[in-house]
Specification:
The protein is an alpha+beta fold. It has a single domain, classed as 2-Layer Sandwich (Beta Polymerase, domain 2), CATH 3.30.460.10. It is built from five helices and five strands, in the order αββαβββααα. The chain has a five-stranded mixed beta sheet. A hairpin with a 3-residue loop joins strand 4 and strand 5. Helix 1 packs across helix 2.
């Protein structure tokens, strides 16, 4: 089983909203074969707690225009790792230090990536690249 078109659409909307708020290293992984509770993880990072929260606000605003509200939100007060659970899609917005430390990308590397259609909007942080190179 793979992610539904609806899930991919939600992930793309979230990714574009994150890119509009200058999120770094935005990726989406199709976790539907590994998890029964969701289809797609969207992962993005930022260099400060303030920017993490701005990205989260942007994502929630864009998805609310489609009538979507998260069924659960965690980590907002700390601004280090915010999880937005939209059931079919779970969005992780992490401080870049936490992104390197927890390495969700590496934990789920066996899952196929989803084309977010962000041509030219991606910004990869040097820390994530260095961590990926060190892990290989």
């Amino acid at each position: 089983m793979s992610a539904t078109e609806q899930s991919i659409g939600i992930a793309r909307t979230a990714a574009h909203a994150a890119a509009d708020k200058i999120a770094q290293d935005i990726v989406a992984l199709d976790v539907s074969d590994r998890l029964a509770i969701t289809d797609v993880f969207v992962i993005a990072s930022a260099p400060s707690e303030r920017q993490v929260n701005a990205i989260v606000d942007g994502i929630e605003e864009e998805l609310s225009k489609q009538g979507l509200k998260p069924v659960r939100r965690e980590g907002r007060s700390e601004g280090r790792w915010v999880l937005l659970d939209y059931a079919e899609v779970i969005v992780h917005v992490q401080h870049e230090e936490d992104r390197v430390f927890y390495a969700l990308d590496r934990l789920w590397k066996d899952c196929p990536s989803v084309d977010l259609q962000l041509e030219g909007e991606l910004q990869t942080s040097p820390q994530v690249l260095a961590a990926d190179d060190a892990a290989e």
